[in-house]
Amino acid sequence: MVAALELYLDTVATRRIRVLWDALESEGVQSMRSLLDQRHRPHVSLAVAPRFDPEQVADALTGLVVAAPLRLSFQHAGQFVGRVLWLGPTPTAELLAHHAEVHARLARAGVDLVAHYQPGHWVPHCTLSMRVPNPLMATAVRRCLEFLPIEATVVGAAITDHARGIANPLP
Predict the structure, then answer these.
(1) What does each of the 171 residues of the chain score in pLDDT, given as a tens digit?
(2) d(C-alpha 20, C-alpha 171), whole Å
(3) How far apart, in whole angstroms, are the C-alpha atoms of residue 125 and residue 168?
(4) Is 115 exposed, middle or buried (0-12, 13-18, 19+ CB in 10 A)?
(5) Which candidate, 23, 35, 50, 5, places its Cα nearest to that of 154?
(6) Measured on CA atoms in the order 101, 54, 50, 45, is the torsion positive or negative?
(7) pTM of the model
């Protein structure tokens, strides 16, 4: 498992993504609903690390509103190698600047971050499924497109490390 700094979405967007999870499940695609004893929340991860020290991260982000009320417009579905299916918000200048500021602060604090979440490499996304069977990928993507666009506002943030039972809210 990995640790993440997660941005949470407003109630309406969260509900729509959960309904999409159910629709994917009805197509035979295991969704994120099945993870963490059904406690997984739809989110966009700003930073990922093999492990986080919650106090170190909180100290590095002091004075920054991590859960800035960013507007996210999920306009596309995508997939990563390994059959990972996701929804992507439009990467606005505001979202990218916020992401860069979070990373700059964490880097100054010596937090070891995963490279593909670094500015210039990051693909903002909300994961829907971790292992879509290859024969079902086209059906899953079509199902996602039926739900788009999804408009969302960031309403919360947390440092999470589910392997260690950590879920610390951030301002």
Answers:
(1) 589 999 999 999 999 999 999 999 999 999 998 865 666 899 999 999 998 888 899 999 999 999 999 999 999 999 999 899 999 999 999 999 999 999 999 999 999 999 999 999 999 999 999 989 999 999 999 999 999 999 999 999 999 987 788 889 998
(2) 28
(3) 21
(4) exposed
(5) 5
(6) negative
(7) 0.94
